[in-house]
Amino acid sequence: MLKIEEVYLKTVKEYEENPDGSHRVIPRKEYWTRDCLINPDYIVAVYDHEFKSSSDLTMMGSLPKNAKFCRVVIDGNSFRSSEIIVASSFTKFMDELKNHD
Fold it and tell me: CA 56 to CA 52: how far, in whole Å?
């Protein structure tokens, strides 16, 4: 098993005060990371990934500014997506896969 940092979308609640003094909740999406174990036997492909769109860039709140990412395609039938974004550069992830064998 490989330990990776998966990038996922998390709903963050912000509180804003109304003119009458009451508060309202404003939900917004942000990218966060979480630890994950992955079986390297199920990895089909790995691609370099960049967050380029303006909406993606505004959701990068908790991630480091100069972080590198890669997209991992996983084989198998699952309730989860077959592609995940990993907080690792392509070359670093490639080295981890080589060293795992």
Answer: 7
Asked whether residue 21 carries a pLDDT value surpassing 70, the answer given is yes
53, pLDDT greater than 80: yes
Q: Are 2 and 29 in contact (CB under 8 A)?
A: no
pLDDT at 52: 85
Q: What is the pTM of this model?
A: 0.79
Tell me the backbone φ, ψ of residue 45, rounded to 5 degrees.
-155, 155
The answer to whether the CB of 34 falls within 8 A of the CB of 6 is yes
Quote the radius of gyration of the chain (alpha carbons, Å).
17
